[in-house]
Amino acid sequence: MKPISKTVEELIIKQPFIIELMRDGLINLSSLARKMVPEIAEIRQTEVTQASVMMALKRLSENLNSTKSQLINVRKTKFNDITVRTNLTDYTFENSPTLINCQQKLLKYIAGRPEIFVSTSRGIYESTVLITSNLEKTLEEIYTDEKKLSKAENLAAITVSLPSESTSIIGLYYMIFRDISWEGINIYEVISTTNEITLFVKENNVNKAFKILNT
């Protein structure tokens, strides 16, 4: 049978918010151990003491603190290139056989105009177009025969350049989303590439979100 410490780790690792509280020393490990005892006993089909769970949590907390320091240092030194664009509108259309033709017409229309922001993404059933708001009329004319599912105005885009090793940094995206969410800011849309992530928020939240990411 696996040790209690392994069972505790497997349960905690599935709960990122608890991990974060443990890292920051904001959770009472004794209370957490007491709460976990019944679940661990059921998993192991044997009696488990609160003291043994508490010891496992304490060791895990020490390991998490070490990991946290490493991630925070990377973030503070690498999150230097942050770009903000405002005055954006988000459209979502139902996928159709003709939707790709509309996208091609739109891209052709804005070709050679670097001041225009446009981003498209396609899912299984719907596609999203984010565009500079002063082109709303043009976009709606091009997509006039498509089924519009939603439209959101007054958005801003915050693009963060990630470190080149970002794909191997565990929890990097979680740290970004956590900091924004804890301040009560809703992330309306997310677009990412290997070394960039763009968050779309309401314009009235953009300064607050920028400050959080730039800290």
Quick tags:
215 residues, 8 helices, 6-stranded antiparallel beta sheet
Q: What can you tell me about this protein's structure?
A:
This protein has 8 helices and 6 strands. It has 215 residues and is α+β, with helices and mostly antiparallel strands. Strands 2-3-1-4-6-5 form a 6-stranded antiparallel β-sheet, with helices on one face. The longest helix is centred in the N-terminal third of the chain and has 29 residues. It is elongated and about 70 Å long. 18% of the residues are buried.
Summarize the topology.
Layout (H helix, E strand, L loop, with lengths): L3 H9 L3 H8 L5 H16 L5 H29 L3 E13 L4 H12 L7 E5 L3 E7 L3 H7 L5 E14 L10 H11 L6 E4 L3 E7 L3 H8 L2
Antiparallel strand pairs: 1-3, 1-4, 2-3, 4-6, 5-6
Helix pairs in contact: 1-4, 3-4
Mean pLDDT: 86
Compute the gyration radius: what is it?
23 Å
> Unreliable segments (pLDDT under 50, ≥5 consecutive)?
67-77
What is the helix fraction of residues, given as a range? 40-55%
Q: Order of strands in the sheet with the most strands?
A: 2-3-1-4-6-5
- Percentage beta strand: 15-25%
Q: How many strand segments?
A: 6
User: Secondary-structure element sequence?
Assistant: HHHHEHEEHEHEEH
Brief sketch in words of this structure:
This protein has 215 residues and is an alpha+beta fold.
